[in-house]
Amino acid sequence: EVQLVESGGGLVQAGGSLRLSCATSGFNFDDYAIGWFRQAPGKEREGVSCTITSEGYTYIADSVKGRFTMSSDNAKNTVYLEMNSVKPEDTAVYYCAVSPAACGTPDTYWGQGTQVTVSS
């Protein structure tokens, strides 16, 4: 059974930093697409970052490029999202997601989400 548990969200001032973690289990870490998504109030869920290790593919949204970095510790089956120079518009619920195909496809497994609030 695929399990995803996010942590690390909270309240941060604009310009500050935060690191989100996603502890995973139940699948082969190297064979899945792994990503971070976010959903702000009243808005659709959007992709933040995605990586497919087996294909050497990495995606980072233009809105966070240069500020957010996705990384992983394969030994711990944990994925991270390092958020720097955060802005109020980064306020959202952040979700970790994995898929045997590609990020965001219908067969995606989702974590429960962690709230990030950026104050101005």
Provide structural commentary.
The strands form two sheets. Strands 2, 4, 5, 6, 9, 10 and 11 form a seven-stranded mixed β-sheet that branches. Strands 1-3-8-7 form a four-stranded antiparallel β-sheet, with no helix packed on it. It starts with a strand and ends with a strand. It has strands spanning 3-7, 10-13, 18-25, 33-39, 46-52, 57-60, 68-73, 78-83, 92-99, 109-110, 114-119. It contains no helices and eleven strands.
Largest sheet: 7 strands, mixed
**Class per helix and strand makeup:** mainly beta
Oligomer: single chain
List the helices and strands in order: EEEEEEEEEEE
Based on CA atoms alone, the radius of gyration comes out at 13 Å
Strand content: over 45%
Mean pLDDT: 94
Percent range of helical residues: under 10%
Distance between the termini: 40 Å
Counted by DSSP, the helix tally is 0
Low-confidence stretches: none
- 3D shape: globular
Number of strands: 11
What's the arrangement of secondary structure elements?
Elements: E1 3-7, E2 10-13, E3 18-25, E4 33-39, E5 46-52, E6 57-60, E7 68-73, E8 78-83, E9 92-99, E10 109-110, E11 114-119
Parallel strand pairs: 2-11
Antiparallel strand pairs: 1-3, 3-8, 4-5, 4-9, 5-6, 7-8, 9-10, 9-11
Task: Summarize the structure in short.
The protein is mainly beta and 120 residues long. It has no helices and eleven strands.
Defining traits:
120 residues, 7-stranded mixed sheet, 4-stranded antiparallel sheet, 11 strands, 0% helix
